[in-house]
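Recap quiz, item 2
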Amino acid sequence: MKKKLIPEIQQSLLRWYQKEKRDLPWRKTKDPYSIWISEIMLQQTQVDTVIPYYNRWMKKFPTIQKLAKANEDVVLKHWEGLGYYSRARNIQRAAKTVEKDFGGRFPKTREDLLSLPGIGLYTVGAILSIAYNKSVPLVDGNVIRVLTRIFNIHDDVLKEDTKKKIWSIAGELVPEKKAGDFNQSLMELGATLCTPGTPLCLICPVNSLCKGFKESTPSLLPVKKKKMEIEKFLGWMFLIEKDGHFLLQKRKKGTVMGGLWEFPSFREGIYDHPKLALKAKTKILCPKAELKGTVPAAFTKYRGLFQLTHCPMSKSKSIKPVLEEAEETAWAKPKDFKKYTFSAPTRKAVEKLSLSDSRNKI
Ligand code: SF4
């Protein structure tokens, strides 16, 4: 990179950021705890979605001490709907570590921060530059897009070498002063103007410095060659009902959506009939098992549909379901569902069948 480009890019972006930055709740503070929570929530999630979650979270857990002492179910409840629940669990484990090993004070060095669960190089860069104004780079999806375009980099960004190259460019660019604002300006540019697809180059503050714009290639960048292999499925979700109560299972930790509650669900859809599927997966016999539609599901590499099966059981019959992926089970009335942190497909099933509406009978 030509040395004289560095101050030009820094000044153009800082000036633009000062004028155009969006007014976001976590930008009103330099508190490392708040910056950390917002950065973890923003991973894989849109800003508009995060704002209400962030505000609720900070009201409930205003300090790292309150978070460390909170019940895990309450923590997960405040994350419900954001997905990737391991992030919430890691946040609480990290809060406990800060309490225990760092006297309740948020660490200030790269090594100490990296020792906390769920904190990687990106989050370290965000905390050190935004909260402590240290000259440390950060690279996320937005920064990758902006830098590959400004420097017209056509290498596969999923390759380690390319990642290293981008981190090194980000390191050269980050200024000694105003490092936090500069890092945020790169991310802001990626989120608002230098967006995926066709970027808004004509109003971009660095268009005169951008090689991708000059070569008319921004919409081709960044290059990503490897794709995650998606596994499709058609599975079953059983709404086993007895005396107005529904059987719920809390999934074992370490399984997909571990720690969340759901109607017993299975991704394997090889059975021809709901009764056969129910018997095979839970050892329960239910002659009245009946299909009630489907709900879509998407988690990690899985995309599919769960076939909603209502299984009304007679009051007198005692049942002992075998649920291999359950850490805990419960029988709950629909009016009490709000006490449970549900997986997304189960939440969709509750909404689809209007189960929370006490007048409804499926
Ligand atoms: S000129 Fe276009 S491609 Fe280059 S950084 Fe700006 S928005 Fe992105």
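The pocket of iron/sulfur cluster is lined by residues 146, 149-150, 193-194, 199-201, 204, 206-207, 210, 212-213, 218 (CB under 6 Å).
The two ends are 65 Å apart (CA to CA).
End of item.
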